[in-house]
Design brief:
The structure is a homotetramer of 327-residue chains. Helices cover 23% and strands 22% of the residues of chain A. Chain A has 327 residues and is an alpha+beta fold. Chain A has one domain: Chorismate synthase AroC (Chorismate synthase, AroC fold, 4-Layer Sandwich). In chain A, strand 1 and strand 2 form a beta hairpin. In chain A, helix 3 packs across helix 7. The radius of gyration of chain A is 21 Å and the shape is globular. Chain A starts with a strand and ends with a helix. Chains in contact: A-B, A-C, A-D, B-C, B-D, C-D. At the B-D interface, helix 7 of B face helix 7 of D.
């Protein structure tokens, strides 16, 4: 299902090569200033352009078609849409018989009995993340005074991103990356014991982003090899400030007022220029496949702002549950 | 909030030193055989007993108080409770002023304005995982023909678990661990694009388990350093069987029929025997703290069955959404 | 499914002749005083005792088994249970073949493929309303300063309740009734346009109460025969006070600060002492049936406090969504 | 919040005088044929045109902007939008100070702190029911073999609808009406005991429709004055067919296979041509108000297809929960 959130609710729709993609955001307090201009910086960060990114160019002009009146949110659902312009009408139907490895072709065709829109990945396309970014912009407004900041920490195993991209282009193979996200200015108390822990909601949304295969909070996987005396963060004052931050700003599923930190692993795009093996249903045999189309060699480059959006939406939902929903 | 699930729904309640902990499971098909005996193996796996585990002993006798008639589920909500017997009535109130590092003392006291039950962690205690395990047993019944299996892969950074525990006892410091979970026999098609991806639901529930700080699916964090041609799993036949399984059995958020694999990082218990520093509200200064009580040196030892339960509940929910809810 | 509510969430469980029935309430603010004593008045109002009520006597002693510490709610889920003591072990299995008219025997047997607990109606029994009443008591605490009051306006078409009951006993036939509910002290603004309108939530919960077949707000069905100039309530001051209250305190799905008023129709209990016709599966023919057991001739007598609970739960959910969830 | 449904989920957005109104429908099985043509009949039924209906004319051309590929649903969310063309840019801001009686002006202005879009009722306008009707068309496709049919039974207390309208025009006062809805072809077993009873879900959605003030199932309010032996429907055969249908096709919250029947009361439109009294915030006094604009004298005329949509959405959600969600 395409909806997330209890008090700050996001619903996305659209397909990569359909007419439009969009998002409805429900639960943004009335009276929040909101204009097309507000989306600009984050949308720009998601756009391709660097070496190794897709040549597909979309204007990504957000249109606010509901929920805003005289420049301010009304309390009604906010709908933001993006028209798809730069689509190509090649035939994607053959993917039903020759699924691309690493892609969702096989599972979508099976799950939806061959009725899914195969063009550019259809509804499952990374194109939909433009809608997540738009929702993230609104979520960040709800999180006034709280800063959510993600950055690409490494690509292809290298912290020198430019060099990694140059290598990928040279080798003509796609690469993965690692993103770090930090949220500062959070109040103590967001998140619930157990099912609605801060980690639960953030990870739920982060894994809604295509290509993410791991997440760790604070010391994360390294914590599995630490002792308690190493890992515990000494509390230094009455506000709960800690000397270290191995917990990543969360204890018992609840924010502790220190910076919330997490890292995510982004896999290399499945659409590598390299020839791969897959099951060819026409030949009824394993056969080599060359994936055509316009693709990113390193989607991790464009993903930090999407991860920010995921974190912001989860935290806005927790904050709104805590504070209630109007003005 | 204490509820998870859309079609297979789990609600937990109780406190570490309260009268009972329990769980309501809604959405289990009518006619499923269910008896106290069914819970035995999994509950036994969660029990302490090994070196370095807590001396607190609970009978952990499940009582099925609703939803079962003549040995079979009725389609009505199933309630399973566990009476707490082995609780100790020490005073925990001082934790409000001297919060234990790494614990939720500080955040709970702040979030609930000093009204939370502090005894043994109250509702936020690992004691509640007995209820998750019970729900997991029922979820596994829903997942007939599907096997969910988790094991401790390392403790304290060592794959020799016994040695790691002996070291922890010798050093008198708590240690973390790494758990691997594999689910086999899954159909193609569980999970939805975006918000209800299989990874989203599993991670949501896994992070509901106390002490978990990271999760990765398939190649996980290693994928961030692979190329597309290395990472993509060649598809070998018409059923979608792949030559490798870097995807961990999930493409585009949807199960692909190969074994679903994930790993989780368990942090060392905050209750280490070592003296730690924290803010002492009585002294209005940072001061050393020695944590008393009955604690585990390596909670990861007892956690695999809890992780299995988390995975089983998430997958049962996805399966039930797919197949509907009766007979 | 057995759960209702977004911000104030209620889950019920149990069967008429099972070990216990109970309720989990999640979302009650921490620090709310709560004791067994608080439930007494409302539980007493639900008890049988008058002419024409069932001879089944239950102690209805609530046990608070989680969520309360030192007499105050902790912010964790509150569980209240009631042990069933006065059950009788007659055989109900024959109802699978000879369903009682007006009862749920036929639909439950069909829906749950013969696995439902048939004893005394199983999970579908009016016995479960004791759990709703308990949840209502907690909801009323959340609604501090707001008074929810329901009363029986007529029974068997007669406003003289005593006389109506005497007639029913004399005629040995069950009778229905009409309940009026008024909520005063509500703030302006509870409810949302469309799907979460105040009427939507209240009616959702009211129809969760067995035997309810109609609900109307304010002028209700009479409004269908009024003109706009008759029906509209003139607004008399800046607080929104109206001269009349045909709207029943709700405009556009949102409370307007005037008393919220609604009426509900309670059908006569299906278990009338009269002989009825039904399909007898054993004889494969329509045959007369005499319903045995201990039953109410006028369940409407005991229902007002249940209707209050339904309204209070719905309004507590709306209020909590508005104000957020902690102390 | 603007979303309804667990397995068949509907989210609406838009404002009366905004750019567009629309709906996202999630949970429609892949492979369902769907075209603009399918919406035509139901949209036509909702259109004004008869005596006493608004002179506002909208083309009501549905645009399917997601979820359909090659004329069939894909399993992804379906979005249908309607551009608003025939809006007028009068000033509605004065309604903040002089709220129209019976309208939501007062409560919206209060709830959303003066930020709501006041033009033509903004998000709370009956204009949004065009989106409900569109969702209803899709819901009816899900309910293949089940017929949902609503009709206007009376207007202004008169079963001669033409005469009633002529009277309303003559008297220049708005009138209410009564709608009857019948659903045939339903399977036994839709609905759950208690919170998700068939009546609960249907009434929840019916009260989401503006101007509805009452609902009754089967004998409804008349049942309150019947005896059990009169009200109970004798069961006539093994399929559960009953001799009468006082239950309206629902027992214990669950459909029994007989026609599901309910009636709803529609109040007269608040925008009567008559002069009314209200609080005039400018004058700080009660003052006469004449409501301008283009309005319906009898909105009940156009409401049957909206009520059908409400019933169809609720039943599609119950059916999908029962049968699961793919092709």
């Amino acid at each position: 299902m395409n909806t997330f959130g209890r008090s700050f609710r996001v619903s996305i729709f659209g397909e990569s090569h359909g007419e439009q993609v969009g998002v409805i955001v429900d639960g943004c307090p009335a009276g929040t200033p909101l204009s097309m201009e507000d989306f600009k910086v984050d949308l720009e960060r998601r756009k391709p352009g660097a070496a190794g990114t897709t040549p597909r160019r979309e204007a990504d002009e957000p249109q606010i078609v509901s929920g805003v009146y005289k420049g301010k949110t009304t309390g009604a659902p906010i709908t933001v849409i993006f028209l798809n312009s730069n689509t190509r009408s090649e035939d994607y139907e053959h993917l039903r018989n020759v699924p691309r490895p690493g892609h969702a072709d096989f599972v979508l065709n099976s799950k939806f009995a061959g009725f899914n829109d195969p063009r550019g990945g259809g509804h499952s396309s990374g194109r939909l993340t433009v809608a997540l970014v738009a929702a993230g912009v609104i979520a960040k407004k709800v999180l006034a005074g709280i800063e959510v900041r993600a950055m690409l920490a490494e690509a292809g195993g290298d912290t020198d991103i430019e060099r990694a991209l140059a290598n990928a282009v040279a080798k003509q193979d796609s690469i993965g990356g690692m993103i770090e996200c930090e949220v500062s200015g959070l109040p103590v108390g967001l998140g619930e014991p157990f099912f609605d822990s801060a980690e639960s909601l953030i990870s739920h949304l982060v894994f809604a982003v295509p290509a993410i295969k791991g997440i760790e909070f604070g010391a994360g996987f390294a914590a599995a090899r630490m002792t308690g005396s190493e890992h515990n963060d000494p509390i230094m004052d009455a506000t709960g400030k800690t000397a270290t931050n191995h917990a990543g700003g969360i204890n018992g599923g609840i924010t502790n007022g220190n910076p919330l930190k997490f890292r995510v692993a982004v896999k290399p795009p499945s659409s590598t220029p390299r020839v791969q093996q897959t099951w060819d249903g026409n030949k009824q045999a394993v056969a080599p496949l060359e994936v055509k189309g316009r693709h990113d060699l390193c989607i991790a480059l464009r993903a930090p702002v999407v991860i920010e959006a995921a974190a912001a939406i989860a935290l806005a939902d927790l904050l709104k549950s805590q504070t209630g929903h109007t003005g």
